[in-house]
Prior knowledge:
The strands form 5 sheets. Strands 5-8-7-6-11-1-12-19-2-20 form a 10-stranded mixed β-sheet, sandwiched between helices. Strands 14-15-17-16 form a 4-stranded antiparallel β-sheet. The model is unreliable at 1-5 and 7-15 (pLDDT under 50). By secondary structure, it is an alpha/beta fold. The radius of gyration is 22 Å and the shape is globular. The protein is built from 20 helices and 20 strands.
Amino acid sequence: MRKFLSVLLIAASLGLAAPKKPKLVVAIIIDQFRYDFLLRYRSEYTGGFDRLLTRGAVFTNAKYVHFPTVTGVGHSTFLSGALPSVSGIVGNDWWDYDEGKHVTCVGDIAARMVGGNGGEGGSPRRMLVSTVGDELKTMVGHKSHVIGISLKDRSAMLTAGHSADAAYWFDLKSGNFVTSTYYMADLPGWVKDFNAARPAEKYRGVTWLDHKLPQDVKEFFGNSTTSPFEASPYGNEVMEQFVERALGAEQLGRHEATDIVAVSYSSNDKVGHEYGTYSREEHDVTVKTDQLIGRLFRALDAQLGPDNVLVILTGDHGVGPSEAEDKANHMPGGRLDPKLVKNTIQAALEKRYGAGQWVAGSWDLSIYLQRDLIRSKNLDPAEVRRVALDAAMSVPHVARAYTREQLLSGMGVRDPDGRRMMESYNLRRGPDIEFLPEPFWVVTDKATSHGTTYVYDSHVPVVFLGPGIRPGQYNGNIAVNDIAPTLATILGVETPSGSVGRVLTELF
């Protein structure tokens, strides 16, 4: 509260309007959404993006300053403002040396799924820092309501935070929106009613562009790797229907204190991976996202009025052009087999030290070694990592690689890319080797991917819209980490515990 009052005094001294506490914060994050998507299709926006761009405070040069630029890390940063070095969310997946196994960023064997066909439910417990929602709940308790909604579990949970009333996501096995025992023992009646209507299944067999979606239910929903339903605009559409139902059912914006709903649109990411960054499919899902957000705004206007709602928009990461798009534009680049660096390191360590499963796991641009095996052979871990580093650098189109020792000591290349890798490194959860491909080279077996520090992966929109926000275009450089402390200041609560951002006072 002291911080909030100080900002009011500063604002008054500068002749600025003090930020008004909204009844509801709608925190929107679009999965795999580059800033230039707002420019490329601007003439076709008539809905949510149009309102944000014409009435909002638009930051044109907002970037992520962490590594890797993937979904789990981006979503954990959005409302915490923390780097992976502090938040503990170092990727979507990693090898946990304390537990001796592969884990996901929201994996929690103590939590069970609620509303699906059983299985692990997940929680935000692996995130070591607070979010704005956590700080709000700490201050006002049950007077405020905080929920997260997405197709992806990690996207719903990491934005909502530890103290959230609920996080809901879509379970492909059951075709239901589900939650976890971390939040509740049973789904609310409104969620059960929504699921009972089977809204997603009406899109079975539908033709989107020239893609006919499967009629068979299992093929239609697919799995976390390949889902025709989620890799189409219809995933976002069903999620949007769920959000609109939640507004009334959860009485969002009608509690004594400000409520927060974090909404993550996931289909943009699925479409981009499957078809390419500038494909007609990505174009179509982007324009349809504008329409869906416009529909959400109309629902908010009707229920609460625009003067009572603060909207924040960003993306969780960008994406590189596909190999085909690079070739068409005479750009360097291509695809690297996701297993190539891992297999090259495995072969080099076998050749040097003998047989064994030397690589514990490889996710995105991170390599984890089997430290138990290294200890059992009485080897120097730093030496083994140097051998692994040389192997990684022998792979064509790997631009740089660092060992754990280099990342911890800051002995890597001291340019912005190197600093981001070093400043993001988590002492307990960080990998043994991190690497960057050359620009425009993507590590994937799909059309394209993301994860690097390069601008196409880190440059995303940041837009604030609502009471007390000064509209306009702001062209200075900011970090996405600045969102959390700015929102905390508007709400008059403590800055989240791991935040490294600044307050964007220029938009008040």
